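Minutes, project huddle
Topic: does the predicted pose make sense with adenosine-5'-triphosphate bound?
PN asked that the exact inputs be recorded in the minutes so nobody has to dig through chat later. Recorded below.
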Amino acid sequence: MANVLTLQDGRTLMDQIRQTGAACVVLDLTMPMISGLELLKQLKSAQPDIPVMVMTASQELDTAVDCMKEGAFDYLVKPVEPNRFISAVKHALELNALRNQVDTLRRYLLDGRLQQQEAFDAIVTCSESMTGLFRYMEAIARSQEPVLITGETGSGKELIAQALHELTGSAGKFVPVNVAGLDDDLFSDTLFGHRKGAYSSAENAREGLITQAAGGTLFLDEIGDLSHTSQVKLLRLLQDRQYYPLGSDAPLSTDARVLVATHRDLRAGMEAGTFRSDLYYRLSAHHVEIPPLRRRQEDIPLLLEHFLTQAAQEMGKKKPTPPPELRTLLCAYAFPGNIRELRAMVWDAVARHGGGVLSMNSFRDAIEKSGAPVPVTTHAESISEPSSDGLFTQIESLPSLKETENLLVDEAMRRAGDNQGIAAGMLGITRSALNQRLRKRREAKDAS
Ligand SMILES: Nc1ncnc2c1ncn2[C@@H]1O[C@H](COP(=O)(O)OP(=O)(O)OP(=O)(O)O)[C@@H](O)[C@H]1O
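Predicted holo structure (tokens), as shared on screen:
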């Protein structure tokens, strides 16, 4: 076959790959000039995305396991049955093609506009990196492949999963499950359910959550903590779209979309041998990686406003005014607990608030408790303060009120990433009032 290249000397592989690339590499473990394991390491460090299959004799199984830890896609024990060989290579090629497609799509989408803004209404953000993620999510929403959502704790993984579910427009439910701390029995029972009498205390049949998610979305949180045996079961579910309730020999089929999330580094898990590489590759065809709050500080003032409104409403208080230097304090803090941590700080501050300007003390206390140094802030440092010379010193003639209003609306929409709900919040008007203004402007423009 023209597109298969056989090399006699393993040492020429890296040069060859640099010249022509490769969609998949099949490596023998025992070779005269260089060992397969050594070559695998070189290949993975230079070209981590090329899938590598390892061929091994049965007495070399330990080395094959080492190869998997080094990132091999799969291993085949010699003598290799031709059909098994073809299907393994095909599988590797398919996954590789899918990954390339997703990368291209991801790059392309970073320039487009959102089609279903309302699916993201619960996610308060004006960050471009988040808007880029939203566009990517819209592109993959209809795919049947699972989606891996990663991000630090409290960065909003569950909200992203809910938005993906909204985007699919499916009639079924969004069913979240936290799999951390579930041993394999509990995992199987929770997910797949059981038949009456499947074990001594199973007095009644129980439907698994995968059944409840029919026609909808099953969201498995903390997937990085899943036991090895449960990982195998999940892989089987993803591959065959079938599962067995405990005590049943008859498989059931599912059409539920599977989303998974973790704050762990699954690649590191794969290298340490705690996370199966076949499952990783299956899960990571679509990957949404949420940036931590400290890498999108522009969201902090927005989130602060949002949580102040929510907390005040919930506690039946008048929304307190935050001192301008509070934003400076928060933007200087690293937020290891991300948005959940900011939310908790705001709730605490509003609960303690007696009236007037919001006190900074509870925020300072929380930062101090986290062990981080409390940034020193002064009123003058505030990022929101206009210059003492006034806003319009650079402009010779003042804009009209109408022009100013249009400019403010445009700026709010830009900062809110075109989310009308957020922009309206910034402008201090209702969403429908903003919508009306935007519509009138469009109509006036169309008429002229
Ligand atoms: N962009 C956002 N806008 C508004 N609220 C947010 C945003 N991101 C997160 N939150 C809120 O922060 C809290 C934590 O979010 P979420 O539970 O989705 O995080 P997570 O990444 O799944 O956390 P964990 O890793 O602990 O499972 C929730 O109350 C959520 O509603």
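Observations noted during the meeting:
- The CA atoms of residues 244 and 250 lie 7 Å apart.
- The first strand starts at residue 25 and ends at 28.
No decisions taken; revisit at the next huddle.
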